[in-house]
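Here's what a typical entry looks like (Aspartate 1-decarboxylase):
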Amino acid sequence: MQVEVVKSKIHRVKVTGADLHYIGSITIDESLLEAANMIEGEKVAIVNINNGERFETYVIPGPKNSGEITLNGPAARKVQKGDIIIVIAYGIMDFEEAKSFKPAIIFPNEETNQLS
């Protein structure tokens, strides 16, 4: 049996931009992607703490150590600059493997989006 589990999570980062006229996705500081074991093009769920919105998009890397968290395209309508969001990536694995799997979960500074 296969199950879907949390693979990676960036817990509570501040939205730095919302660009409605971009082609779509979420731009995330590359240093956060590396720390959370996420890759370019990976499907992610976005949870907006401020308004309760929950939606999916895909990742594109932003400049390393920039703190950038920008929602692009239609997803830009789901956030406001300054909102706090959680970014979650899921993986599918064997049930027995999932029992011992440990996800990469990071807790950046919510004001700067930098790792401590």
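The mean pLDDT is 97.

More examples are in the samples folder.
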